[in-house]
Design goal:
The chain is built from 3 helices and 2 strands, in the order ββααα. It has about 90 residues and is mainly alpha-helical.
Length: about 90
Amino acid sequence: MNWVKKRKLPTIKAIQYNSCSCIKLEDLWKALHNSFNLAQNHQIDTHLLEELPDKKVMSWTSFSKAELTNAINRCNNSSTLEPDKLF
């Protein structure tokens, strides 16, 4: 079976922070943590949002709780990398 053989991973570019590659998980965590802390108290300019065109509002088709539950249950057998069950 071809799909279970070892594969060569594609070349990727490492995340850079302060001109250093974040190769280790602790370096990546430090970069993300510091970036968040730098941005946390910065003011943002919301006027940028005013330039976006308005989109037509669409209405939802009504559905019952039973229809939603049935749709979710059909998805529960799908495999994912995380826990599979939605409820």
